[in-house]
Design a protein that fits this description.
Helix content is about 25%, strand content about 25%. It is α/β, with parallel strands linked by helices. The strands form two sheets. Strands 4-8-7-5-6 form a five-stranded mixed sheet. A three-stranded parallel sheet has the order 2-1-3, with helices on one face. The longest helix has 15 residues. It is globular and about 40 Å long. The chain starts with 6 loop residues before the first strand and ends with a helix.
């Protein structure tokens, strides 16, 4: 597991950002483009051992997820990328170690794939939507591989 003093917390808005003392933090902006750019810049600036993306996400009524429910993403799906998978990945998964640690720390959290879309309500095919999730995870994946 990552050294606790080398964790970067990424959130789209300042109101969603509440890192633990000593952790680096970046407000990445709303949407996948700003999130990818801000996350890449923060990786260069902070050289984190782990990156945690937090924020307020939307859930579909049929998902069974009630309001104010904590959700951990087991993968991020870029729902409206519009390019064939051979040219760009549509799904990325978090670090297995980080996912295990999150599940251990938050055992009552719901585990779901989180859809990323450039528009509200656009995460078709996923119960939960976060506009920045895929972009942050994709930049993190490239940093840690």
């Amino acid at each position: 597991m990552a050294s606790l003093d080398r964790i970067l917390v990424v959130a789209p808005t300042a109101r969603e950002l509440a890192p633990a003392a000593g952790w680096a933090a970046v407000c990445c902006g709303v949407g996948p483009v700003d999130a990818a750019a801000a996350t890449a810049a923060a990786i260069v600036a902070h050289a984190p051992a782990a990156i945690i993306h937090v924020g307020i996400a939307g859930a579909r009524a049929a998902s069974g997820i009630t309001p104010v429910r904590l959700v951990i993403g087991d993968a991020a799906h870029y729902c409206d990328l519009g390019a064939p998978e051979q040219f760009a990945p549509h799904v990325v998964a978090p670090s297995a170690d980080l996912l295990v640690a999150a599940r251990r720390a938050l055992p009552s959290a719901t585990l779901r794939t989180i859809g990323t879309s450039g528009r509200v309500g656009g995460g078709v095919g996923c119960d939960v939507e976060a506009m920045e999730g895929f972009a942050v995870l994709r930049r993190s994946e490239e940093h840690t591989s």
